[in-house]
Amino acid sequence: MLTGSLAATTLALASCTSKDGQAQASVSASPSKQATPRTLRLASSAPPVYLDPALANDSESFRITRQVYETLISIDPNTGSPIAGLAEAWTESEDGLRYTFTLRRGVTFHDGSAFNAKAVVANFNRWVKLPKPLAEHASEGFGHVFHHEENLPKLPTEAELKLTVEKGEELSEEQRTAETLRLAELEKLKTVFAGDLFIGKSSGGSASYFAGVEATDNYTVTLKLRRRRVGLIEAFTLPGMAIAAPNSLTGGPKANPGESLLTAPIGTGPYKFVSNADGIVKLELFAGYWDKAKLGNNPNHPQLVEVSSISSPYNRESALMAEEIDGFDTVSVDIMRTLVRNAKVVVQRDPFSVLYLGMDRRNTWLAKADFRKAIAHAIDRGSLADKLFLQGSKAAQSILPPTFGVPDPEDTITHSVDKAKALLAGLGYKGELIEFAYPLRVSRSYLPLPERTFAQLAEDLATVGIRIKPRPIPWTDGYVQKIRSKDFTGLHLLGFSGGYRLEDDFISGILDTKEHEFGYTSKLLDSQALVARSLPAGDERTAALTGILRTLNTDLPLVPLVFPISALAFNSNVTYYPSSPMLNESYLDVQMTNSPALSS
Predict the structure, then answer these.
(1) Residue 293's closest CA among 87, 24, 70?
(2) What residues contact residue 531 under an 8 Å CB cut-off, 6+ apart?
(3) What does pLDDT average to over the chain?
(4) What value does the mean pLDDT take over residues 111-116?
(5) Which of 202, 193, 190, 194 is nearest to 226 (CA)?
(6) Could you say which DSSP state residue 33 is in?
(7) Which of 164-168, 363-367, 590-594 has the lowest mean pLDDT?
(8) Rounded distance, CA 298 to CA 25, Å?
(9) What span, in angstroms and rounded, lies between the C-alpha atoms of 384 and 396?
(10) CB–CB of 303/285 below 8 Å?
(11) What's the CA dihedral at 305, 309, 7, 269 to 10 degrees?
(12) Could you tell me which of 335, 305, 333, 304 has the C-alpha nearest to residue 320?
């Protein structure tokens, strides 16, 4: 099993190899002039939901838009650090409230229009004015980065932070410690909130970081903030911050002037959108792509790309074996052995996602803290990771992957059937049914086997006496929207894949919708997250993040389950694939021979 670089498949794990120093080659001719253009045929587990990156919130959509669009800041494939993208350079003011971007010259959109400062400003203006129903769809774009519609949270009172127990019970020593820490956290926050947290007026909510943007000249853009936002440059690598052709941002209905992007995306990326029909998205190499050196460094890049949707992992495996496709994403543990035995190339990604079990407090039983705690004790996270995920996947004790180095809270709940049963007995639970939703006909990087994962969790819950009512929902029937609606109040499986290397991506990405997804609100958590977002790397920031994890551990809106390793599989005609933990995988970096037959 190989990571990054491709060669003959072995059981050894190899690290990602760089392509630096590769000899220059001439730019490939247009696909239309080739008798047999190199075509990369990939299979994903679900079709894209939105081809407009400003509205998308799923990895299958971003899989396509990352090829068609580009962002101001790109990601170094070897280190994950931010590097020049559509912006050649940038500077940050000393107070962190002004960023100046120097844009790349000689870039054109797929419709032939010029990329310049006005184009960047036009995209910002569109993001700022997105109607709320549309903005709520997005998870890795402007709203996620700038928290534009959020309002300044109010600090909780001491009384609101007091922990409660069932009538006649007393706080345990563990609960008293947690309460003391919560009150100490409040005192720290009071000091910060005593000053002015944001400056100037906002065109959005009172806690929006966005102050304004302007084209200083044709190739210079100045961005102004209302409060320092640590990690802003890294956040600009998110696919939802992609720059679309200005001509495509107007002409649609008032509710969405950029409606054409849903069916005809237009960016500056290396591939042009051709069609989305019969379950296959087709792309072709953009002859006018600006980065000629990148094209020349890899003369074996795909000239055409076809991404099909095959929901079953076993059907994806069969299609690969029959050479109907060149590769597929989301390899599950139960087909790994078959792939290895058949000398298929498996490319592994480092873990940068988390699977969790959501618990909606609008449910009568899930509203009880001890019931949620019993569920957390009932689940054997280690067994789940070992049985249903690729080797190297780890049980999760928090929502932050280990790569961030933030320690788990000391009182993290561990697997204990006896403790779970004792808590349930104290609540007087008599086996009332709890609805449990899980997705059908899909595989996610954080959830390759949804049905089997549900089954194992249901078995864990049954062991301690919790009865569940299965609620399977097809992913393409709006699974995420349904579990976040007021009509569903139960348990559910979901996860989050990180888009850039900063903790707030996970914290905001998972918890910004907490009221809808978990029936959970917390003045303390909102205040903690706001403060942590402006702290530079160091002990103070780590302490602030530990405080956030402690709040989540006490309130338990969700149970973190697994930090999964995900993987792709390929036939031998794909000789290199640029795997990325953040899924920032450009097909222009893929190296191919012409066909599986030619490489065998």
Answers:
(1) 24
(2) 189, 192, 544
(3) 91
(4) 98
(5) 202
(6) G
(7) 164-168
(8) 7
(9) 10
(10) yes
(11) 30
(12) 335
Cα separation, 323 vs 344, in Å, equals: 11
With contact defined as beta carbons under 8 Å apart, do 336 and 427 qualify? no
Place of tokens 């694939």: 577
Residue 22: both structure tokens together: 């590769």
pLDDT of 10 higher than 90: no
Query: Alpha carbon of 212 to those of 97, 155, 201, 250: distances in Å?
Result: 11, 28, 10, 21
DSSP 29: P
User: What digits encode the pLDDT tens for the residues 235-248?
Assistant: 999 999 999 999 99
Is residue 458 within 8 Å of 437, Cβ to Cβ? no
CA 306 to chain centre: 23
Round to whole Å and give the CA distance between 165 and 31.
Answer: 68
User: How do beta strands 353-359 and 558-563 pair?
Assistant: antiparallel
Beta strands in 50-190 (DSSP E): 73-75, 82-84, 87-92, 98-103
Give me the residue label for tokens 């808590």.
423
- The predicted model gives 43-71 an average pLDDT of 96
The strand pairing partners of 42, in sequence order, are 307, 327
Q: Return the structure tokens found at 286.
A: 């953009």
User: Residue 485, by phi and psi: left (phi above 0), alpha (psi -120 to 50) or beta?
Assistant: beta
On whether the CB atoms of residues 576 and 5 are closer than 8 A, the answer is yes
Which has the higher per-residue pLDDT, 259 or 410? 259
CA 231 – CA 543 distance, rounded (Å): 17
**DSSP H stretches of helix in 228-311:** 232-235, 292-297
Rounded to the nearest 10 degrees, the angle between the axes of helix 173-193 and helix 523-532 is 50
